[in-house]
Write a structure and sequence with these properties.
Immunoglobulin-like, six-stranded mixed beta sheet, about 45% strand, mainly beta, three-stranded antiparallel beta sheet
Length: about 110
């Protein structure tokens, strides 16, 4: 999972994608799981994005989130994470030792 994702203000692509791994670096099996994407402005306690993400490949731990227009309308540096609810109702957040940094860069026009 790349730790920095760049996107221009008001863009809705590309999607942010990740392969979720546990503390040992092993791929997390997402079979039967649901995933949400969370993002907040650095220093804030309020989520700008709290939305369903897509499980691209459950067995390979691959997830993605396709941006909505309102997600990238604010320029700044954001903390982001993928939250997994497993089939046994346990919840696990990735990455669990830090955040994905999302930088929304202003556009010219």
């Amino acid at each position: 999972m790349s730790s920095i994702f760049w996107i221009k203000q008001n863009d809705t692509g590309p999607a942010i994608a990740a392969t979720l791994r546990d503390a040992n670096g092993d791929v997390v099996d997402l079979t039967g799981a649901s995933v949400r994407f969370h993002m907040r402005l650095k220093g804030s306690t309020t989520a700008k994005v709290d939305a369903a993400a897509t499980v691209v490949s459950a067995s390979l731990g691959e997830v993605s989130y396709g941006w909505a227009a309102a997600d990238t309308d604010t320029v700044g540096k954001f903390d982001a994470e993928f939250e997994v609810t497993h089939s046994d109702a346990s919840v696990e957040t990735f990455p669990n030792t830090s955040y994905i940094t999302v930088i929304v860069k202003d556009d010219i026009a």
